[in-house]
Write a structure and sequence with these properties.
alpha+beta, 1 helix, two-stranded antiparallel sheet, 2 strands, about 40% helix
Length: about 50
């Protein structure tokens, strides 16, 4: 498996983990030199 494929697999695992733990919000990927170098999670909490 190439380094790029390993990076993509790691990114997907992290995104899946983040999505499973949030109800509202956004996930932002930061890409540099053809690789994801940062994942940001902004979670919103809605009060009733």
């Amino acid at each position: 498996m190439s380094k790029k494929q390993e990076n993509i697999q790691l990114v997907l695992k992290n995104i899946e983990k983040m999505l499973s733990s949030m109800n509202y919000g956004s996930i932002t990927l930061v890409v540099h030199d053809d690789s994801v170098v940062q994942i940001e999670k902004n979670e919103k909490i809605r009060l009733k």
